[in-house]
Specification:
Length: 308
Amino acid sequence: MLASGNHSSYPVSFILLGIPGLENSQFWIAFPLCAMYVVAIIGNTTVLHIIRIDHTLHEPMYLFLAMLAITDLVLSSSTQPKMLAILWFHAHETQYHACLIQVFFIHAFSSVESGVLMAMALDRYVAICFPLRHSSVLTPAVVGKLGAAVMMRALLLVSPFCIMVSRMPFCPNQIIPQPYCEHMAVLKLVCADTRVNRAYGLFVAFSVVGFDMIVISVSYVMILRTVLGLPSGQAQLKAFGTCASHICVILALYIPALFTFLTHRFGHHVPRAVHIMFANLYLLVPPMLNPIIYGVRTKQIRNRGTHI
């Protein structure tokens, strides 16, 4: 059934199928997904709690880590509860506006996550290349402004997704063949020319990821040059160690994200079940791994965590 708005007719609700091709296994697939979600919630909440109560951790690296933890909590919680309800309880229906809200949260906070990782790369660059100026360059005020800029970028770039889609007519088909709403999946249900929407989606994806990856890459090239110029091998090893966890987090986000993005548009021969599983992992693996990676590799958080 279609509802009429000022500018378009839109469905009252959509049907989210879950994981097409794996219907008989969905009930059991939900258990590891639930376990990963629980680890993400506990891990990121623990990291936030440790940073909040330990004033010695109120430094740029840990403030950015707190931003990353908040982003991961929002990103994973925007998809997983509904996904588990679909896989376990067959709650396939989702309201139209709830679907658009989910589109916004997924894309906005994916952009925020990428931006926070870029800011963390800048922090490592200043800390290693200009150690004596680190505290004066990256003051709490500057860290706050970087966080606000990353959030504002996400709001300004992603809001048009929902605005443009909400003004377009939808076809009678209301089935989304995956367990959550995202921009391209909803766009495929529109009965109108969507070239502008698709072009804008590509522009946002490449501008956000492209800009952030360039800044991250340049930061690490400069870090590498500085580290290789250090006189002792022990100092080099220590400097590399401070960056290793950040590089692991970057890879955990960008590899599945790029696979999902490219297969949605160009990977027509990739089995749908494989594509959807990667899409789920892209929204769940980084939030689960980030607190584990930083908790294990960051001495201050690891030591503080053992006393909680």
